Amino acid sequence: MDGKTAAPAARSLALGLMALGLWSVSPTEVAAQNIVWSVVDCSQSRLVAPSGATCRGTNRYAGDNGVGEFQIWSIRGNSPYQYLILNESLNSSSSIRFTNTTEEYLRRIGPGKNATGFSGKLHRNGADYFTFTSKAGEECTGFRRGGPSRSVGYLWVLGGILCLTKGEKLDQARIFKFMDDAQVK
């Protein structure tokens, strides 16, 4: 990415993270940091990837007012649609905080946008999760969990969405398997 495209990409990333409620830094500060997404070999990702997934990661970047160090990893799989995103703090002066609800968070990720029929908030192994129907009529589930706790916030926050092919039924066993398989290395 050249200098002409790095700043707009960084601003876009900052706005996305702010929309997800995971970061509170101005787009101007982000642009100066040159956050860049790259496709990475899944063995380099901090997320356990299912077979055939595409893995991406950012470079390390400084947080609000230059405090802390962070990195983001994502995995996308198809058939069924799976998306995981890990926001990670990399040193003792860093932490990730929730600034919105899990439902608001999920409504900003892929199939969660324009989704309907969100269930009430459910809990499993330290995560909040919901079921919902995508705009395309797919049965979906999404979750968010933080771990381990820090004095303020978390060391990392992991979120994900799974949507089955239209017509397939999403049952509790499939939801729990998706959540349990979503692991930070």
Descriptive report:
The longest helix has 17 residues, at 3-19. α1 crosses α2 (27-33). The two termini are 28 Å apart. Residues 1-32 have low confidence and may be disordered. Strands 1, 2, 3, 4, 5, 6, 7, 8 and 9 form a 9-stranded antiparallel sheet that branches. It is globular, with a radius of gyration of 16 Å. Helix content is 21%, strand content 32%. The protein contains 4 helices and 9 strands; from the N terminus they run ααβββββαββββα. The chain has helices spanning 3-19, 27-33, 102-106, 172-181; strands at residues 37-40, 54-58, 61-62, 69-77, 81-89, 122-124, 127-133, 139-149, 154-163. With 185 residues, the chain is an alpha+beta fold.
Number of strands: 9
Summing up helix and strand content along with how strands pair, one would put the structural category as alpha+beta
Beta-sheet strand percentage?
Answer: 25-35%
Please give the count of helices: 4
| Helix content class | 10-25%
Instruction: Quote the distance from N terminus to C terminus.
Output: 28 Å
Report the average pLDDT across residues.
85
Low-confidence stretches: 1-32
| Largest sheet features | 9 strands, antiparallel
| Overall geometric form | globular
Q: H/E order of the elements?
A: HHEEEEEHEEEEH
Radius of gyration: 16 Å
Q: What are the key terms here?
A:
185 residues, alpha+beta, nine-stranded antiparallel beta sheet, 4 helices, globular, disordered N terminus
Compose a concise summary of this entry.
The chain is of the alpha+beta class.
